């Protein structure tokens, strides 16, 4: 089933617990947490103490997206803080295979992320064992950016490779997803849909998640 993952980056950090409760009531089962270091991306967000507090406040799965240099140095800390899945960027990992294996050795799901300018071929060698692939549909760093349309071709390509290789890793998409473009993205093959500003800047985040789930369900029925 296609999942909507609200990204807390666009939530009100002074009211995090309520924001989480509202998307949980809307049917979300996973939360997307964006960790940024001000080096790999031109923005700084939060680290393990915030993840730990969120872990204590909810039973939802926590999907931690590491937009940091040397992610391998911090994996154990984020696992201890409560991550259920961790994704690392192809662009930050000189030893991508080892870093993904390190995440899996901690007993959680390992994802690989590619930026808009990174082709699918750059992760070909890890497709057979990775737990999920995250395709960035904006340049990472900020919420509220416009979806880059060319990303759809990458989702289609990944879906094709997945089928050819007989694999079933979920394809995650992150950036610029809203109620208008969601159906097309799901039809292209995305399974985990991250949505930040379109959820938390809406009047009713819970309702928006519910509407997105419904649109995703309809779109799955007519996948390409
Ligand atoms: C951007 C982050 C995203 C961000 C998406 O670098 O990785 O997860 O929260 O925000 P929207 O959905 O507003 O594009
Ligand atoms: Zn993200």
Entry keywords:
single chain, alpha/beta, TIM Barrel, eight-stranded parallel sheet, 8 strands, binds D-xylitol-5-phosphate, binds zinc ion
Polypeptide structure, described:
- This protein is an alpha/beta fold and 224 residues long.
- The longest helix has 16 residues, at 205-220.
- The protein has 8 helices and 8 strands.
- It starts with a strand and ends with a helix.
- The chain has a single domain, classed as Alpha-Beta Barrel (TIM Barrel).
- The mean pLDDT is 97.
- It has helices at residues 16-25, 48-57, 75-81, 96-105, 151-165, 182-188, 197-200, 205-220, and strands at 3-6, 30-36, 61-67, 85-89, 109-114, 132-136, 171-174, 192-195.
- It is globular.
- Helix 3 links the parallel strand 3 (61-67) and strand 4.
- An 8-stranded parallel sheet has the order 1-8-7-6-5-4-3-2.
- The structure holds D-xylitol-5-phosphate and zinc ion.
- Residues 7, 9-10, 32, 34, 65, 138, 140-145, 174-177, 194-198 line the site of D-xylitol-5-phosphate.
In short:
Helices cover 35% and strands 19% of the residues.
What's the layout of helices and strands?
Elements: E1 3-6, H1 16-25, E2 30-36, H2 48-57, E3 61-67, H3 75-81, E4 85-89, H4 96-105, E5 109-114, E6 132-136, H5 151-165, E7 171-174, H6 182-188, E8 192-195, H7 197-200, H8 205-220
Parallel strand pairs: 1-8, 2-3, 3-4, 4-5, 5-6, 6-7, 7-8
Helix pairs in contact: 1-8, 2-3, 6-8
The chain binds D-xylitol-5-phosphate and zinc ion (ZN).
């Amino acid at each position: 089933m296609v999942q909507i993952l609200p990204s807390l980056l666009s939530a009100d950090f002074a009211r995090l617990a309520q924001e989480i409760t509202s998307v949980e009531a809307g049917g979300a089962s996973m939360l997307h947490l964006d960790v940024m270091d001000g080096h790999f991306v031109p923005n700084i967000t939060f680290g393990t103490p915030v993840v730990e507090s969120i872990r204590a406040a909810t039973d939802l799965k926590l999907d931690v997206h590491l937009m940091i240099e040397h992610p391998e140095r911090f994996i154990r800390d984020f696992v201890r803080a409560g991550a259920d899945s961790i994704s690392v960027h192809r662009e930050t990992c000189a030893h991508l295979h080892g870093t993904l294996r390190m995440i899996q050795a901690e007993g959680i799901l390992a994802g690989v992320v590619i930026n808009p300018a990174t082709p699918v071929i750059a992760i070909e060698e890890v497709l057979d064992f990775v737990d999920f692939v995250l395709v960035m549909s904006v340049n990472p760093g900020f919420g509220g950016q416009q979806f880059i349309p060319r990303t759809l071709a990458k989702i289609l390509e990944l879906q094709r490779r997945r089928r050819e290789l007989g694999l079933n890793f979920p394809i995650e998409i992150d950036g610029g997803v809203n109620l208008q473009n969601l159906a097309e993205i799901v039809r292209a093959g995305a399974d985990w849909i991250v949505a930040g500003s379109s959820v938390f800047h809406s009047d009713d985040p819970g309702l928006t998640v519910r509407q997105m789930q419904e649109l995703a369900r309809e779109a799955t029925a007519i996948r390409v």
